[in-house]
Amino acid sequence: MNPRFLMRVLERTDLKTKLRLAKVIPKLGSGEEIVKCMLCPNMCLFSCPVFDAERRLTVSPSVKSRIAYFGGEEAIYHCLPCNACKENCKMGISVNENLRRLRNGKYADKIDSWLSKISKRVEEREGRILYFPGCRTFESGLIKSTLDYLEKIGIDFALSSEIVCCGMPYYEIGDKRYEEHFSNLKKLASRYDAVISNCPHCVFVMRELGIRAEHTLSLMKPLKIGGSISYHDPCVMARNLGLVEEPRNFLRACGFEIIEPAFSAKQTSCCGYGGFYRILYPEYADKIAERRRRQFEAEIATSCPSCKKALKAKDIVELLLEVL
Ligand code: SF4
Ligand code: SF4
Prior knowledge:
The chain is an alpha/beta fold and about 325 residues long. It has 19 helices and eight strands. The chain folds into three domains: about 5-100, no CATH class; about 110-220, Rossmann fold, CATH 3.40.50; about 220-324. α13 (about 200-210) links the parallel β3 and β4. One iron/sulfur cluster binds near residues 61, 80, 84 and 85.
């Protein structure tokens, strides 16, 4: 961080603020990105689903960066890992990534109780490829369809009940338990040739950990179905994994005519159910989902369990299973 900027800030603050800054600044690394956001006239505001739902400037990208910088706590949890700001920022800055460094695990107990409610044991089986459903696949009920589909197309897959969640919600909320999740996931994955998952966020986390991971879409085979359909791009699938054309090509190969919604591909609009946001603020997450749903004119297909649940959409695997 520019020392002159820091000196000016310190000169103008009282002791209480100085003490808060002393806690925050070391966590910011160079701090340059958050300072750029603080000084920005909220150029990505139009793309932020949280601001759109909550309609308060205090949760807008630039203002929550300012609040976070000066030690404010609440605003840093009002964010999704959607990276719409990053997609629309001339400097490629992700507000969520900046805020994540400042979160300290407050509310992690809410993740615990949510996880214990949705976790179910699976019947273990051996195979060369591990199918890792991820917590959201359990929550959305997509697990049964996926297991049926993999069985029917004859994939030799393994299932393990050792780990339900990849650890991403803990990572996002700044709770150290993510380290244990990541390490257990790496150990588990090392016993297999590769891992497949329905959840784009799980795939992203695994790839970041050096695990050979693919989205289940990569194993699916198109079947003739036909008709019109809209495709909702899950944020992480489009922006982090870069899978934009692949699901569309797959749906076209199934004979679908694709009707694009107003916001699609990397300019997709978040469903509101990502990260921990819905666990903490369900009423706003539902509002984001409802707004996104209204942007579609045809039945919605998607490839993420969270988006499926939020948008009452059909996962591609469910479309295939109907005709298999
Ligand atoms: S992410 Fe970019 S556009 Fe958005 S507030 Fe920060 S600097 Fe401005
Ligand atoms: S990551 Fe998403 S929710 Fe968070 S500030 Fe950026 S656009 Fe808004």
